[in-house]
Amino acid sequence: MPEVHLIQPDGQRVTLDVPVGTSIMQAAVSAGVAGIVAECGGSCMCATCHVYVEEAALARLPPMLSTESEMLECTAGERRSNSRLSCQVKMTEDLAGLSFTLPESQ
Ligand code: FES
């Protein structure tokens, strides 16, 4: 099963095995990772699953839909060029090994 790394703002790192087709948010919530709140349960309506993707890997992610981009205007943490909502990123074999850094707040 492919794995990803979630990095807390303080540098603590958690590695998760994520089944293909499962969102990074779902995997993080199931594993009890602090810092992924996911209030809306993955409906792209809360922006509390915000993550920063490692810059070099941005092109490997699925394209961002306008709804995700609009919600990213509502994040508690600063929106950056590598911001994504983790509920909108579903695991694929191509994303294996990727790192996602969590913002200071959700
Ligand atoms: S879980 Fe609500 S926008 Fe991702």
TrEMBL record:
Keywords: 2Fe-2S, Iron, Iron-sulfur, Metal-binding. GO terms for molecular function: 2 iron, 2 sulfur cluster binding; electron transfer activity; metal ion binding. PROSITE patterns: 2FE2S_FER_2, ADX. GO terms for biological process: P450-containing electron transport chain. Its cofactor is [2Fe-2S] cluster. Residues 2-106 form the 2Fe-2S ferredoxin-type domain. It comes from the Bacteria. GO terms for cellular component: cytosol. Belongs to the adrenodoxin/putidaredoxin family. This is 2Fe-2S ferredoxin.
